Amino acid sequence: MNKNRLYWLCQIVGWSSWSIFEIFLYSAAQQFDLYQIIGELFQIFFNIVVTHLFREIIVRGGWLNFRWVKLVPRIVLGVLILSVANYFFLLGFIILIGENAEGGFTVFGFIAGIIAPSFTYFLWSIVYFTFHYFERYNKSLQYEAAINEFELNNLKSQLNPHFIFNALNSIRALVDENPQKSKDAITQLSNILRSSLILDKKRLITFSDELTTVKDYLDLELVRYEERLKVNYDIHPDSGDFNVPPMMVQTLVENGIKHGISKLKDGGEISIKTIVLDHTLVIQIRNSGEYKAPKINGREGFGLNNTIKRLDLIYGEEAKFEIGNEAENSVLTEIIIPETI
């Protein structure tokens, strides 16, 4: 059902229901007669027409874009005008059917005659503006979600070329030095690319799937670094069910090796540990080396900046990211992710 049909359905059903409610009250007070039915039928038609005209003024006047300070006085004035019109409509109908109009127009009768309908028209205004408020709010959420999804896809699309570039550089270094190891490295790279192609279409993946990619990547780096690289895992058994952004942990592990271990003459150690605490997943990545604040616009800050932006877009303030020197020659990267989004 489109928006226009929904509007007219609400107008007809709403005002008809209101008139049935009034007939019920008249019947309970033993004031029900044929003229009441005719009057209520005319009242339904009148209310539909005047509130529709009021809606046209609201739409054409751009009231939906007004702030409350500017909007409320206009609503009050509009409700007052509708109530006055309703009073003279009823007065005219009473005179038309030949009923006693109680001496015609009186100030007291006029004031009393506009109080009740003013509440009715004010209620109509609240319903109308509330509907449009939530409609716009939902549209803004959808728009924001679309923008976030676009930015996430953009950030994610940057990871594969960045990773492939680094991996190919690693393999190139092995070609002349050890052809057999370079072949093994190419096999490892193909496994990683196969996984990344499958996971690239997903917004989130399980930590267990991410860990598989991380292990493939570290196996590739072990071929290159040999005894200069040591890898340790301490994975909580319940961490595999948590959802994480694809290639997030792999990017941080790569960052630890590239900017930490690769710069050490004797190499170093990298460890991945997970802790499940209070429905949150804590991922800790430790690597040998020293942390220095990355260049804001340089390539050195790519992995960290990408991770921070993705966490913010997906989890907002519920996720946390920290990196720093834990001790001498030890860098700790810690991510805290909620169980549900």
The percent range for helix content is 55-70%
So, the CATH homologous superfamily of the largest domain?
A: Histidine kinase-like ATPase, C-terminal domain
Q: Which structural class should the secondary elements be placed in?
A: alpha+beta
Shape designation? rod-shaped
Oligomer: single chain
Main β-sheet description: 5 strands, mixed
DSSP summary: helix tally: 8
Rg, please?
35 Å
Number of domains: 2
Distance between the termini: 31 Å
Across the major sheet, the strand order is 2-4-5-7-6
Q: Might you state the CATH topology name of the largest domain?
A: Heat Shock Protein 90
Supply the CATH class of the largest domain: Alpha Beta
State the total count of DSSP E strands: 7
What is the typical, i.e. mean, pLDDT?
80
Given as residue ranges, the uncertain stretches (5+ residues, pLDDT < 50) are: none
What letter string, H or E per element, gives the SSE order? HHHHHEHEEHEEHEE
Give the percentage of residues in beta strands.
Answer: 5-15%
CATH architecture of the largest domain: 2-Layer Sandwich
